[in-house]
Every structure is written in C-alpha cells, then in structure tokens.
From TrEMBL:
Belongs to the TRAFAC class TrmE-Era-EngA-EngB-Septin-like GTPase superfamily. EngA (Der) GTPase family. NCBIfam families: GTPase_EngA, PRK03003.1, small_GTP. One of its GO terms (molecular function) is GTP binding. This is GTPase Der. GTPase that plays an essential role in the late steps of ribosome biogenesis. It comes from the Bacteria.
Length: 489
C-alpha cells in the first residue's frame, strides 16, 4: 500500500497537486461554495516548509521576555524569572505581515555563582545555534556593558544576521541613548519600548528582512546529505552512553565546531550501512556552576537540537517511572513537527515486575504518541542497537508520506457516511473535501460546512493513521469552514 501513497516527486506550481489533480480539486471546491483564493490561501497556510527561527538574546533585565510576548502577541513567556525556575517552553510561533516564524526566548534564567556573564553566554550560545537570525536586545538607558560586548563577540563568530534592539526607549528623549548603540558595530539600533509596543513594528519589519522565507513545500525532494537525528531526553538518561556506543563501533568523522565555549559535537555515524548525522544534546560540556539553571539550559539545548533535526530519538530511562519531564520533551519534538522514535534505555536491567508496570505507564502516560516506533535498548551493552535504524527509517517514511487528493477524498467520504459529526445546536457540520498540503510532517486541510470539534478531529486523525500508516510522525490537521452565504445562494 505504501508505494501508492508516498511522495510522487511532482514539482508543480501547485505544490502537492499535479495540474490535472489541481483542476479537479478546484472544481470540487467551487461546487461546495469555496472560492479559489480562499482554498489556495488555506493550502498555502498549512503547506509551508520548516519555519525560520529567530533567537532573542541579551543580558538579564533588558526586556527580552517582554519583547517575546509582544512579538507573539500574547503573554506567554515568563517575564519575572528566578534562579531554578523550570522553563518548559522556550520556542513560540509568531506571525508578522503575513509571514510566520519561530521565536526562541532566552529570557529565562539569570545568574550563577560565576556571575551574569557566564549564564548570558551559555543562553546566547544555545539559542544562536538553533537560529536563522538573532534579535540582540540592549537596555538603551544603561548603554552597552561588558556583558553586551561579550555577546557581540559571540554573534560575530556565529555569522548569523543580527537585528539590534535598543529597548526601553519610551519617548523622544530616549532616541539619543539608542543612537549611542551604533558603537556596538552591529548596524542600526532600532529604538523600541517592548513594554508599550513603541517601535516594535519597525523592528519586526527589519526581522523579516533578516529571516529567510519559509521554504515552499516540495513533495519528494529531500535535503541533501545524511539524515539528521536529534538524540534527546532528560539529563542522565544515557544519551552520551548511547552516542558513544554507536560512535565507537563505526565512527566516520567527528565534526567539532571550534571557537565556542560549549563545543557542540555533531557525529557522522554509520549504522546499518547508512551514514547518519547525530545532533548531540548530551555532548555539550557540562558547566558545573550552572546546576541551578540546569532544567532551563536543557530545554534550550533540546530546542536547538530539535530545530536542526529531521527525526527525534527520545531516550527514556526504563528503570524509572516515566516523568513529567520525559513527557514535556516528547511534546517539544511533536510540536516541532519532527519524526519520532522512543528508545527505552537500560532495558537489560529490568525485572518482570518493572516491565509490567512500565507497560502500564506507557499505556496511560504516552497514549497520545502510540504511533511512535519503540525500541528497547541498552546503551551500556549495545543490546538491540540494530533495531534503532529500522525504527528511524520507519518514522522518516511516515514523515514524508503523501496521500493523493482523490484517494484522500474517497476516504473522507467513507468517514462522513459511516461516522458523521455529532449534531450540535441543531446543526451537523460535515467534512466537504480535503487535501494534503504538505509533508515533513504530513499536513492536511479539511474544508467543512461548520466547526469540527476537537474530539472529531482526533477521530479523523486516528482513522487516517489506520488507513495510511503515518507511523512515527505527528499529523497536523487544519479546518477551513465555509463562510455563511446569503439566503438566496
């Protein structure tokens, strides 16, 4: 079956659809009362490639989280952080002038025993690693400090486009303070009050110029080079041991990026006769003085690795109960739209009782990702390492799967006939037709006569998986409701 639904490699201006399929689809849309512009807009919105990433960096108390809240349009980033506060979310989705992008917030944690400089540098390094462009926030009322100068050096070394934000300019009188920041050598300082919103529009216009466009969806075209795997998990679950085990046997080359204080290491490793790029979140040199902020830094490291990867292998310590932190890391990978494999480490240490309870935990705590391939491994002994490659390949195949529009609509017709949406308020919304707008991960747009409840969307997703596979990948479903027409129409 899969050979019928994988990418057909078509590369038309209609993205997923060939010319004949597109014409047939638009005819169907017109019959159901949808205009061409409305349909194409919905498909474009759902069918973009990976979103570009913007990092917001700067020393403490310059207003980074306030600016992030302003950019994403809601109060979601934590504004008043204290050392040791766990920050689960560090990435957010934003939109400006019709363009969508991701924002990495580094406003989380302030100071360690070595002082502010070290923690600022660590935050900036992790965030810059994931980013396509950077907003560097400076407090214009204070001016450039030694810490700011240190961050400038990091930015120059990274070579990413930088937009300089002179924050806390609340009126005309602060404009001169902002002008003084030309001295940093990063180009024009944009005077902003992130608290009041002053100047943020001009700043975001500059951000859009610095960010690359979200790539158009291309079915059947893979990015060149080895497939990229992020090995993620909470601290001390055995990520380093697993990486060392696979690297020790067939290491091809180690690519060390010199010149940074954290020495990130991406390993090109041969497994199962294939070369893979393992993006290591464990190999980052531990800073013993940053233990209080360890959870926050772990979140930043994980976010950076996931953004660079195609598939996330989440390592879970099978000898311990599945933790909230394990679930949050899985959620991070799913929300980022990456292919997913779950690897249960230390399997060789489990007795029958622990195995029984672990299976119950998986059923209850991880039911929402029952679609992810599972591998039971031991990073110490190397047990079942050979099963890792087939699981990764399965997840990537699901991630890239495309269902032809005709076949999808036949399937949706069967669903509507056998399991119609419940009647709500005297009305029964109905799926009229749909299309797959993108892959990596699979994204579907359903066009309906009314609002589809979350439970019904989940049911449609479950049936999609039963019918077409999609093993190892999240599925995004968006719904476009037909606008109400006049009585005579």
């Amino acid at each position: 079956m899969n050979d019928q639904i994988h990418s057909d490699g078509s590369d038309h201006e209609h993205g997923a659809l060939g010319d004949a399929e597109y014409a047939e689809f638009m005819e169907l849309a017109a019959e159901e009362g949808f205009g061409a512009e409305e349909v194409e807009g919905a498909i474009d919105e759902a069918g973009h490639g990976p979103l570009p990433v913007l990092a917001v960096v700067g020393r403490p108390n310059v207003g980074k989280s306030t600016l992030v809240n302003r950019i994403i349009g809601r109060r979601e980033a934590v504004v008043e952080d204290k050392p040791g506060v766990t920050r689960d979310r560090v990435t957010y989705e934003a939109e400006w002038a019709g363009r969508r992008f991701k924002v990495v917030d580094t406003g989380g944690w302030e100071q360690d025993v070595l002082g502010i400089d070290a923690s600022v540098a660590a935050q900036a390094e992790y965030a810059i690693e994931a980013a396509d462009a950077v907003v560097f926030v400076v407090d214009s009322t204070v001016g450039a400090t030694d810490t700011d100068e240190a961050v400038v050096k990091l930015l120059r070394r990274a070579g990413k486009p930088v937009v300089l934000c002179a924050n806390k300019v609340d009126g005309q009188s602060g404009e001169a303070d902002a002008t003084a920041l030309w001295s940093l050598g990063l180009g024009e300082p944009h005077p902003v009050s992130s608290l009041h919103g002053r100047g943020t529009g001009d700043l975001l216009d500059a951000v859009l110029e610095a960010l690359p466009e979200a790539p158009a969806q291309r079915f059947g075209t893979a990015i060149g080079g080895p497939r990229r795997i992020a090995l993620i998990g909470r601290p001390n679950v055995g990520k380093s041991s697993l990486l060392n085990k696979v690297a020790k046997e067939d290491r091809v080359v180690v690519n060390e990026l010199a010149g940074t204080t954290r020495d990130p290491v991406d390993e090109l490793i041969e497994l199962g006769g294939i070369t893979w790029k393992f993006i290591d979140t464990a190999g980052i040199r531990r800073r013993v003085h940053l233990q209080e902020g360890a959870d926050y830094y772990a979140s930043l490291r994980t976010a950076a690795a996931v953004e660079k990867a195609e598939v996330a292998v989440v390592l879970i310590d099978a000898s311990e109960s599945i933790s909230v932190q394990d679930q949050r890391i899985i959620t991070m990978a799913v929300e980022a739209g990456r292919a997913l494999v779950i690897a249960y480490n230390k399997w060789d240490t489990l007795d029958e009782e622990r195995r029984y309870y672990l299976e119950r935990e998986i059923e209850t705590e991880l039911a929402q990702i029952a679609w992810a391939p599972r591998v039971n491994v031991s990073a110490v002994t190397g047990r079942h390492m050979e099963k890792l490659v087939p699981a990764i390949e399965t997840a990537l195949a699901g991630w890239e799967t495309r269902v032809p529009t005709g076949r999808l609509n036949a399937f949706l017709g069967e669903i509507v006939a056998s399991h119609p949406h419940p009647v709500r308020g005297g009305k029964q919304p109905r799926i009229l037709f749909g299309t797959q707008a993108g892959t990596k991960p699979p994204r579907f747009v359903l066009f309906s006569s009314g609002f589809l409840e979350h439970g019904y969307r989940r049911f449609v997703e479950r049936r999609l998986r039963e019918e077409f596979g999609f093993e190892g990948t999240p599925i995004h479903i968006s719904v476009r409701v037909r606008e109400k027409r006049g009585r005579n129409k």
